[in-house]
Structures are given as structure tokens and as C-alpha cells.
């Protein structure tokens, strides 16, 4: 054994020179190659300078033009001009609605378009950049609007994935970044699991007010190339969610002006008053686009774990009242149903938020059933107690007997098989009074 291991260890040592040779061989060949002059050195560089460069020179020119004027400042010719940003929201996926923390996670595409006079060039025939109608630039090389999600609720500070901007020769810029948003959403679960949630996503410029930036809806060209602004969340590329059904997913082909089911988004303005250093007050109005998404919960899962057991158990609650009180099965069944309802209530508590304004109605129903069963069991036990006590002591206290048989018995229209005690006593009294006179 020892010899064998020694031999194994010795193996690499023997072959070491060979290995070294093998390792060095490629390096040597590389060094040999680099020493050789490149045959197509001149022709390659000349090809680069003619064919490829028209687009590259255009981009270089656009970027350097931007470098000269600086990235900051809106791309307008006159500082009193408004820049109009068309903004659109396309939803790709509803990832999750966290009812407990009231957060909605969505996968979205944002669409921006605006006109930037600094990014226009001549593309007509005969000009230097003939046939180049569009180029792609990095968004950090050009001015981009600071439109933010206002009801943002994310730990990550960066919301967008970097995407290049597409620039057309007339200066129109199209920018479609992808983003995963986590936004606040007021959750109402009164009708859980048949509930409908309306979540909103509010976008607006964080710093520019209406005198500097005009925010409007992103437009589409629908049939017959009719351009229409789209004040709805776009569901064209939507991937259907298993848990949520949204109105928009069946209506995305309809023209915006013909849509009826989706909630129309609206423009909201807020006025803020600021105080300048010299004490002068001035008002600023900020414009925001409020997109709304209506989602209906798919109740199939909850139907089988929360609703169906509840219906069956409610039927059993009725059955309890058919059992005679002296049967021990009555209390046993009652307690079993009670425990079953309690488990359902725990299940419900797990799936619904614990801090809400309205408790789900189905939860109230469970509680009511539990109250009914408790009362039934309590009364059955009372009846058994009275029954056993009557057997032992022979006679019920007259007051209790009167209250139970005359008061409650009449109230619940129970047939009275035997005369009441005091009536018997009265009869006896009468008989006793009559007998001496005889
Ligand atoms: C070939 O390219 C090298 C650098 O890549 C350059 O120094 C050299 O001048 C070029 N040769 C010719 C003939 O242009
Ligand atoms: C900018 O616009 C204002 C008002 O529209 C106008 O009075 C002014 O002449 C313009 N300035 C330039 C440089 O065009
Ligand atoms: C531009 O396109 C036209 C038609 O496709 C073509 O005839 C012309 O040669 C193109 N010009 C350049 C510079 O590529
Ligand atoms: C903003 O743009 C929209 C659409 O282009 C236009 O109807 C509206 O008048 C503009 N608002 C201002 C204040 O210019
Ligand atoms: C904000 O101010 C504008 C005028 O500056 C006014 O027309 C608008 O009604 C105000 N909006 C609100 C919500 O106060
Ligand atoms: C700003 O708005 C307030 C009311 O919201 C109004 O009283 C005030 O006059 C406004 N100031 C200016 C400079 O418009």
C-alpha cells in the first residue's frame, strides 16, 4: 500500500518537465503570433474609417454636442418653453399583493417620449447622415426626465433597469426602461375571498412643476393609424396571473376611447406654497398621472379550503339541534364543530392581514357559528344538569320551575304534558279547604 502511494506521488514529478512544456507552448505560440505584422493592417483601418463610422460619428457628434451644453437643464430653446413628456405605463406581470403590509409588486415597462432639439440631425438624401433615421444612446449621456413613482415603497433605491434611449432624426426620444415596482396599495378585504382590489400607481416629475414640464399620456397608433393618447394601463404584453384577474387583460385591443371596463387614469394636480429667501410666497403646481389597476381575486383555492368546509360545518350546526339534550353525542359534536371552526378561523387569519379596518365577513360568520354552538352546548349541559338534579332531589325549586315551564315554555310554544306545580298545589289547597266544610 505504502509503495503504491509513493508511486502515485512520484508520477507528477516524473512528468513535470513535460507538463511545463505543454503549459509554455501556447504562450510561446502567442508571442510568435504577436511579433508577426498584421497582413490587413492598413485595409482594416481604412474600412473602419469609411463604412462603420457614419453612425459612430453621428453618435459622437450628438454626445459631444450634449457635453458642450451640459446634461442638466431641460432641452428647450427658450427657458420659458414647456417640455412635453408623454408617459405610458405597461404592465407585464402582477408579481404579488402583500395584504399584510399593503404592498403591490409589479413588473412594468415605462414609456417616455419627448422632443430634444439638441438630438436632431439631417437624414435626407444627399446629407452626411443619409438613411440613418435612428440611433441608440445611453440615457446618462442625454437629459432624461425625473419622473418617479410617488407611492413608492421599496427598500431598493433604484427602481429602473438601465435601457438605452432611441433617438430619431427629428429629435424625438423614445425611452422604455423596465422596472420592478413595489408600491403602496390600500387593501380592503371585507369580501375576502371574493374581493376586488384597486391599486394605483402615481407617476410625476419629482422636481419640475407645470410651468416647466407638461406631462401627458403616451399615445398609440391604433387601427388605420389613428393616433390616440392612452390614459389606461397598457396590458398588451401582460402575462396572466393565477391569483388575480384584471379588467385590462381582455380589453387591451380596444381603442382607448371605446374602453368601458378598465378604470380610466386621471391627471392630478397638487398646489404647494413655498417661501423664498426674501419672504415672498409663490405657488407651484405639480402634475401627476394616477394609473389605476382593478384586480379581482381568483377564489378557487379559497373556495375549497375556507368556504366549502364552512358550508358543510354550518349544516352540521343545524344537526346539533336535532339531537336530544340528554344524548352525550350532542356536546361532543358541538365541541368538534367548534374546534373545526376555530381551525378555519386560524387559516383565515393566516391568509388575511391582521391590521385592517374591516374584518372579512366570512370571519364574522365563523365567529357567529362558534357562538351558536357554544350556546347550544351550554344549554344542553344546563338541561342535563336540571334533569339529573330533579332525579336526585325529586322536585325543582318552585320559582325556577315556574320560570322555565310557564315563562320560557310558553314563549317557545312547548306543549305542556302535565299541569303546573302551583296549579296542583292550588287544587290540593282547594280540596283541603273543601274537605273540612264537608
Ligand atoms: C498598423 O497598426 C499599428 C498599430 O495598430 C500602427 O502602429 C502601424 O502604423 C500600422 N501600419 C500601417 C502600415 O499603417
Ligand atoms: C423666449 O420666450 C419669450 C416669451 O415667449 C420671448 O419673449 C423671448 O423673446 C424668447 N427668447 C428667445 C431668446 O427666443
Ligand atoms: C440610402 O438608401 C437608398 C435607398 O435604399 C440607397 O439608394 C442609397 O444608396 C442609400 N445611401 C447610403 C449613403 O447608404
Ligand atoms: C400639455 O400637453 C397636452 C397634450 O399635448 C396639451 O393638450 C396641453 O395643452 C399641454 N398643456 C400645456 C399647459 O401646455
Ligand atoms: C391649483 O392652482 C391652480 C391655479 O394656480 C388652480 O386653478 C387649481 O384649482 C388649484 N388646485 C387645487 C387642487 O387647489
Ligand atoms: C398662493 O395660493 C394661496 C392659496 O392657496 C393664495 O392665497 C395666494 O395668493 C397664492 N399666491 C400667489 C403668489 O399666487
Automatic annotation (TrEMBL):
Limits of the Neurotransmitter-gated ion-channel ligand-binding domain: 56-250
Keywords assigned by UniProt, alphabetized: Cell membrane, Disulfide bond, Glycoprotein, Ion channel, Ion transport, Ligand-gated ion channel, Membrane, Receptor, Signal, Synapse, Transmembrane, Transmembrane helix, Transport
Cross-referenced Pfam families: Neur_chan_LBD, Neur_chan_memb
PROSITE patterns: NEUROTR_ION_CHANNEL
Entry-linked SUPFAM superfamilies: Neurotransmitter-gated ion-channel transmembrane pore, Nicotinic receptor ligand binding domain-like
TM spans (from-to): 301-321, 333-349, 361-388
Family assignment from sequence similarity: Belongs to the ligand-gated ion channel (TC 1.A.9) family.
Annotated protein name in UniProt: Neur_chan_LBD domain-containing protein
Taxonomic source organism: Macrostomum lignano
Amino acid at each position: 500500500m505504502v509503495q503504491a502511494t509513493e508511486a502515485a506521488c512520484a508520477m507528477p514529478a516524473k512528468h513535470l518537465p513535460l507538463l511545463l512544456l505543454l503549459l509554455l507552448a501556447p504562450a510561446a505560440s502567442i508571442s510568435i503570433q504577436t511579433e508577426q505584422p498584421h497582413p490587413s493592417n492598413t485595409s482594416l483601418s481604412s474600412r473602419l474609417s469609411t463604412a462603420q463610422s457614419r453612425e459612430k460619428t453621428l453618435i459622437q457628434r450628438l454626445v459631444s454636442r450634449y457635453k458642450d451644453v451640459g446634461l442638466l437643464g431641460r432641452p428647450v430653446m427658450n427657458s420659458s418653453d414647456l417640455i412635453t413628456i408623454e408617459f405610458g405605463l405597461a404592465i407585464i406581470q402582477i408579481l404579488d399583493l402583500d395584504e399584510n403590509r399593503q404592498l403591490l409588486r409589479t413588473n412594468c415597462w415605462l414609456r417616455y417620449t419627448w422632443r430634444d432639439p439638441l438630438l436632431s440631425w439631417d437624414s435626407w438624401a444627399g446629407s452626411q447622415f443619409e438613411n440613418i433615421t435612428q440611433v441608440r444612446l445611453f440615457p446618462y449621456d442625454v437629459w432624461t426626465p425625473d419622473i418617479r413613482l410617488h407611492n413608492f415603497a421599496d427598500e431598493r433605491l433604484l427602481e429602473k433597469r438601465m435601457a438605452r434611449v432611441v433617438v430619431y432624426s427629428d429629435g424625438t426620444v423614445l425611452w422604455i426602461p423596465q422596472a420592478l415596482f413595489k408600491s403602496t396599495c390600500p387593501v380592503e378585504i371585507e369580501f375576502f375571498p371574493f374581493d376586488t382590489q384597486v391599486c394605483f400607481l402615481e407617476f410625476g416629475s419629482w422636481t419640475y412643476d407645470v410651468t416647466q414640464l407638461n406631462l401627458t399620456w403616451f399615445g398609440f397608433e391604433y387601427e388605420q393609424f389613428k393616433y390616440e393618447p392612452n390614459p389606461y394601463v397598457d396590458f398588451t404584453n401582460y402575462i396572466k396571473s393565477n391569483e388575480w384577474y384584471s379588467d385590462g387583460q381582455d380589453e387591451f385591443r380596444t381603442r382607448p376611447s371605446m374602453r368601458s371596463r378598465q378604470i380610466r387614469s386621471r391627471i392630478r394636480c397638487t398646489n404647494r406654497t413655498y417661501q423664498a429667501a426674501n419672504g415672498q410666497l409663490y405657488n407651484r403646481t405639480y402634475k401627476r398621472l394616477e394609473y389605476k389597476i382593478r384586480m379581482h381575486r381568483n377564489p378557487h383555492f379559497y373556495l375549497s379550503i375556507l368556504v366549502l368546509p364552512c358550508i358543510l360545518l354550518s349544516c352540521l350546526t343545524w344537526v346539533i339541534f336535532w339531537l336530544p339534550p340528554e344524548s352525550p353525542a350532542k356536546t361532543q359534536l358541538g365541541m368538534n364543530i367548534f374546534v373545526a371552526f376555530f381551525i378555519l378561523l386560524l387559516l383565515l387569519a393566516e391568509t388575511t392581514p391582521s391590521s385592517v379596518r374591516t374584518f372579512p365577513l366570512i370571519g364574522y360568520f365563523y365567529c357567529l357559528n362558534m357562538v351558536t354552538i357554544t350556546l347550544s352546548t351550554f344549554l344542553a349541559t344546563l338541561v342535563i344538569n336540571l334533569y339529573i338534579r330533579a332525579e336526585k332531589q325529586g322536585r325543582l325549586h318552585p320559582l325556577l320551575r315556574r320560570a322555565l315551564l310557564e315563562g320560557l315554555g310558553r314563549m317557545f310554544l312547548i306543549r305542556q304534558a302535565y299541569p303546573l306545580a302551583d296549579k296542583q298545589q292550588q287544587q290540593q289547597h282547594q280540596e283541603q279547604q273543601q274537605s273540612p266544610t264537608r
